[in-house]
Design brief:
DNA binding, alpha+beta, 2 strands, 2 helices, Lsr2 protein, Lsr2_dim_dom, Lsr2-like_dimerization, 37% helix
Length: 149
C-alpha cells in the first residue's frame, strides 16, 4: 500500500494558495507566515524602510555550555566547602559550651567584711577608705575558627 502526503500552503492573510513561507523576527521573537506573491511583496516593501535603517545585532559572547557547567560546579564545590567549615565551627563551639556546662563550678568564697572598731574620740580626722575595685568574674568567649580540622 502506498501513501501520498501532499502539503498545500495557504496564504495566512486571505486563504488563497501561498507560494512563500516568509520568516522574520521582531523583538527577539521569530515568526513565519505563508504568503502569496503579492502579500510577500507588500510585507517586504513595508519592512524595507526599517531594514535599511537597521544594523546587524552584535554577536553574543561565545561561552560554551561545558565552560558554564564547569564554573557552576566550581561554585557549588566552594559553597559546599564553606558550609562544611561553618558547620565544623558550630560543632566545635557546641562541644566547647557543653564541656564548660558539665564542669563543676566552684563557688567563690564570699568575703565577710571585718568588723570595724570605732574609736569614740579621735583627735585626727580619719582618712576616707578607698573603695575596692568591684570583682567581676572572668568570662571566656567561645572561639570561632574557619579552619577545617
Amino acid at each position: 500500500m502506498a501513501e501520498r502526503i501532499q502539503v498545500e500552503l495557504v496564504d495566512d492573510v486571505d486563504g488563497s494558495p501561498a507560494n512563500h513561507t516568509v520568516t522574520f523576527a521582531l523583538d527577539g521573537v521569530t515568526y513565519e507566515i505563508d504568503l502569496n506573491d503579492a502579500h510577500a511583496q507588500q510585507l517586504r516593501a513595508v519592512l524595507n524602510r526599517y531594514v535599511k535603517a537597521a544594523r546587524s545585532p552584535k554577536p553574543e559572547p561565545t561561552s560554551s555550555t561545558r565552560q558554564q557547567e564547569r564554573e557552576e560546579e566550581q561554585a557549588r564545590q566552594a559553597n559546599k566547602q564553606l558550609t562544611e567549615q561553618i558547620r565544623g565551627a558550630a560543632q566545635r563551639t557546641r562541644e566547647h559550651l557543653s564541656k564548660k556546662a558539665a564542669e563543676p563550678v566552684a563557688p567563690e568564697p564570699v568575703e565577710q567584711p571585718e568588723p570595724v572598731e570605732e574609736a569614740p574620740f579621735e583627735a585626727t580626722p580619719a582618712e576616707e577608705p578607698k573603695p575596692e575595685p568591684a570583682r567581676v568574674p572572668a568570662v571566656s568567649m567561645p572561639q570561632f575558627s574557619s579552619a577545617v580540622d
